[in-house]
Design brief:
The protein is of the alpha/beta class. The chain folds into 2 domains: 112 residues, no CATH class; 205 residues, von Willebrand factor, type A domain (Rossmann fold, 3-Layer(aba) Sandwich), CATH 3.40.50. Helices cover 38% and strands 23% of the residues. The strands form 4 sheets. It has a 6-stranded mixed beta sheet with strand order 5-4-3-6-7-12, with helices on both faces. It has a 3-stranded antiparallel beta sheet with strand order 1-2-13, covered by helices on one side. A two-stranded antiparallel sheet has the order 8-11. The protein starts with a strand and ends with a helix.
Length: 342
């Protein structure tokens, strides 16, 4: 058995707390009642209340909550094979994670905004395989081409500057994308790259590498991120204060969008360049344009999936809640005081 939403299982640890609250409420009611009569007289005055029935009701309620939390965690067991047919493109996302992407000319900063936009972009896709490449002074494939958008979303949240060699190597990023398409052996007319960067390339080889992509029929859409005026790059100091990145001479380093290289990359591959201004990021425009491209059949003869079984636990929870509601706290009345009035 596996759980599709295992985080809900943590809710089971709240059940002892609920049990303590029920016990506290019971004792408090008993304490309040003792103000009006002695403890020895209470059973005679409230003859119809049954402590045993109260305990049963509390147990049913807690057990029902346990089954409800398990149902929310979506237990799954048993597998089935499904025939799946999809149509779509192969899209490789090339995301700049260099230090300059921390600049805040695009709020909250260039990188965080890019991550949010890519996440929204993925939610609109259906049937397109997606790959993810992160790059700075070097490039790294994070997710190969896949239909599992959840995995891409997961890796997106981990993107931060500092773990790759410093700098901005657009050529290395494009080359990683070309290699990914080669390994997948898809026809080039279905291959698309989307490159997101501020364009500050140290080694100007990106256009030449883009020509290699064009020779294979790969389109590269580019999105320029950042302002065209220089802005500083915020960093956190050792004591947690925000400072600005400086060069070895102590001068504050500024970063600005360099559009020329990004425009040339898109032009040589027959695609388009988009400028991501603070109010509009442009990824949706890219999606609109690539939606008009011819799409291949991404078919899989069979796909194995787990069977959801949460209905069993949800039904048990409903039955327990119903049983708890039908059971009364009051038992049969005993004629303890009848002798006094006979």
């Amino acid at each position: 058995m596996r759980f599709a939403e295992p985080n809900f299982l943590w809710c089971l640890f709240t059940l002892p707390l609920f049990a303590l609250l029920f016990l506290y409420a019971y004792r408090r009611r008993k304490k309040l009642a003792s103000r009006f009569a002695s403890l020895s007289m209470l059973p005679k005055i409230a003859t119809s209340l049954s402590p045993w029935r109260r305990a049963v009701k509390m147990s049913l309620l807690l057990l029902g909550m346990a089954f409800l939390f398990i149902a929310l965690a979506r237990p799954q067991w048993g597998r089935k094979m499904e025939h799946v047919e999809r149509k779509g493109l192969d899209i490789v996302l090339l995301q700049d994670v260099s230090l300059s992407m921390l600049a805040e000319d695009v709020q909250p900063n260039r990188l965080v905004r890019s991550r949010h936009e890519i996440s929204a972009f993925l939610e609109t896709l259906a049937g397109d395989r997606v790959g993810l490449v992160a790059f700075a002074g070097e490039a790294q494939t994070l997710v190969p081409l896949t239909l599992d958008y959840g995995t891409v979303q997961l890796m997106l949240r981990e993107l931060e500057p500092g773990w790759l060699y410093p700098g901005t190597d657009l050529s290395a990023a494009i080359d990683k994308g070309i290699q990914m398409f080669r390994r997948s052996k898809v026809p080039s007319k279905y291959a698309v790259m989307v490159l997101m960067s501020d364009g500050e390339e140290q080694d100007p080889k990106a256009v030449e590498t883009a020509k290699e992509a064009e020779a294979q029929g790969i389109r590269i859409y580019t999105i320029g991120i950042g302002s065209k005026e220089g802005v500083p790059i915020p960093e956190k100091s050792n004591n947690g204060e925000v400072v600005y990145h400086k060069d070895r001479f102590g001068n504050i380093v500024t970063t600005h969008l360099e559009e020329k290289t990004l425009q040339d990359i898109a032009a040589v591959t027959g695609a388009r360049y988009y400028y991501a201004n603070p109010g509009e990021f442009q990824l949706q425009k890219v999606l609109t344009e690539i939606a008009n491209l011819e799409k291949k059949d991404n078919s899989s003869d069979q796909m194995e999936s787990y069977q959801d079984r949460y209905q069993i636990f949800l039904g048990l929870a409903a039955l327990l809640f119903l049983a708890e509601a039908l059971i009364s706290e009051r038992g049969r009345k005993r004629k303890q005081l009848a002798g006094r009035f006979s």
